[in-house]
Structures are given as structure tokens and as C-alpha cells.
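The step that takes the researchers longest sounds almost clerical: writing a folded protein down as plain text. The outcome of that step, for a single protein, is printed below.
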Amino acid sequence: MNLVRLLAIGTWLHVKQLSRSPLEIATSVLIPLVQATLAVYLFRASPQPQALLGAAVGAGLMGVWSSVLFGSGGAIQRHRWEGTLEVLMLAPRRPALVILPFTIATAVTGTYSMVATLLWGRLLYGIRLSFADPLGFVAAVPVCILSLGMFGLLLASTFVLMRNANALANTLEYPIWLLSGMLIPITALPGWTGPLAAVLPTTWGSRAVRAAATGGEVWGPLVVCLAISLACLALGALTLSYVERRARAAATLDLA
């Protein structure tokens, strides 16, 4: 219960911090709508009746991924700039338990992207929100968001060690959503990308969400997504402990 309370309070506090940032609010509000608009114009000529709904769902997933990627790293950088990162790393808890609420919070706030893109598509472009498996969609979206939060923990470890890790985040945004098939089917990519896509939880999460919206197998990919996410959580915890020790030894936690 103490662990659940720690994660819940940490997530809630970070959600409140994100809601006070004009930059975070503007980015979270505008980018998903732009992505949804571009996706609709890309797929509106498709003869498949569910193509536009799949485009709206894919744009929403892209927004959640962007929120997790930049929000998690941004939280680490912000604490470094404010001089509180050292205090977080000295907390009497494992580093993963301190950082995990950041990544979960960014994933939770990223749910706005999914809601916004679906409503934007419905109100502006008349997309019918007729999901092939409504129950599967309700189950797949939270699992996919949680998996992104766990994957974000693994990525956040680089921000603890590297002061210029924002450059790494900038290079990961588009490759990951391409490899995950959030908007473009993986079958349209070169064959050598298949093994890379198979180890990403975002691939299976987005596959489950899109299948629930447009038709297809939902629960199998969802189970695989959850299993890979738990592996990311364990690997992220180990990596973060190692990186935290390295950062202490190299004295790279602060900006001095």
C-alpha cells in the first residue's frame, strides 16, 4: 500500500506541475490537433471505410508517445535546472520509484491526445466513431498508455546521466512511431525493421488499439504489450540504478 500511495501521489503531483506549464499546455493542446489534421488529409482518399478512424486513433497514439518522450525527459531536465535532481536521487527509495511517477504522469496527460484527435475528427471531418470492439478499445488504451509510461522509464535513465539528452529525444520521436505502426502499417516498411518493431511495447500497444478501432485481434497483442512493458519496467529499474551510480561518480547530476 505504501508503494501504491507513493506512485499515486507522485503521479498526481507531477500532473499538477504539468498543468501549470504554459509550454506543456500549448504543446499538448496544439500538436495532437495538427497531427490529426495531417492524418485525415493523408488517408481521406482511402477506399476502406475505417481508414479515417484508424488515422485519428494513430494520430492520438503519436500524441501520447510525444508527450511521454519529451515530458519524461523534460521532467528530469527541469529538476536538474532547479537543483532538485540531486535530492530526488538521494531519496530513501529506489531511483525507479522516484522517476516512474514522472513517466506515468506524462502518459496520463497524453490521454488528452487520444480524446482530442477523436473529437477533432468527429466534429470537423465527420468521422464515425464506430469501433469494431468497443470493450477491447476501452481496455487497450489504458494498457497502451501504461506501457508507454514504463517504456519512458527506460528512456528517462539517459536524461539522468546525459545533460544534453534532449538531442537523443529529438531523434527518437519519429522513428519510434514509424516502427510502431501508429499511423503507417509496419508492412509498408523495409523488412529489416520487423525485428526492431517486435521488441517495442509501442508496436503491440498501437496494434491492439488500432485493431479494437478498425477490426482485428486485440487481446493477443495486448498481452504481448503488457509483457514487454513489464520487461521494460524491470530493465529500466536496473538501468536507472546503474546510471544513478555513474552520475554520482561523474558528478553530472547538477549543472555546475
In short: The chain has a mean pLDDT of 81. Residues 9 and 197 are 34 Å apart (CA to CA). The chain has ten helices and no strands.
